[in-house]
Amino acid sequence: MSALDIEALTVALPPGADRPHALRGVSLRLDAGEILCVVGESGSGKSVMAMAAMRLLAPGLRVEAGRVLLAGTDLLALSEEEMRRVRGRRVAMVFQEPMTALNPLMTVGDQLAEMWRAHTDLPAAEVRARSVEALREVALPDPEGALRAFPHELSGGQRQRAMIAMALALEPEVLICDEPTTALDVTTQAQVLALIRDLQRRRGTAVLFITHDFGVVAEIADRVAVMQHGLLVEEGPVSRVLEAPAHEYTRRLLAAVPPLRAPAVRRAEAGGAALEVRGLTKVYGAAGLFRRRRATRALDGVSVTLKRGATLGVVGESGSGKSTLARCVVGLLAPDGGEILVDGAPLPRARAEAAKLVQMVFQDPYASLNPRRRAGEQVAQGPVAAGVPRADAAARARELFELVGLDPAAVSRFPHEFSGGQRQRIGIARALAMRPKVLVADEPVSALDVSVQAQVLELLRDLRARLGLSTLFITHDLRVAAQVCDEVAVMKDGAVVEAGPVASVFADPRHGYTRSLLAAVPGREAPGLGGGRPAPMLSPAGE
Amino acid sequence: MNPWRLYLRSPTAVLGALLVLAVAAMGLLAPLLYPDDPLGLAGRPLQWPGDNPRFPLGTDPSGRDIAAQIFHGARVSLLIGFAATLIAVAIGIAVGALAGFYGGAADTALMRVTEAFQTLPNFLLLLLLVAVFGSDLRTITVGIGLVSWPPVARLTRAEFLTLRTREFVQAARLQGLGDAHLILREVLPNALPPVLVYASVVMAVSILLESALSFLQLSDPNVPSWGNLIGLGRNVLRTEWYVSAIPGVAILLTILGVSLVGQGLNDALNPRLAGR
Question: What residue spans carry the region label Disordered (chain A) (predicted)?
Answer without folding.
Answer: 524-543
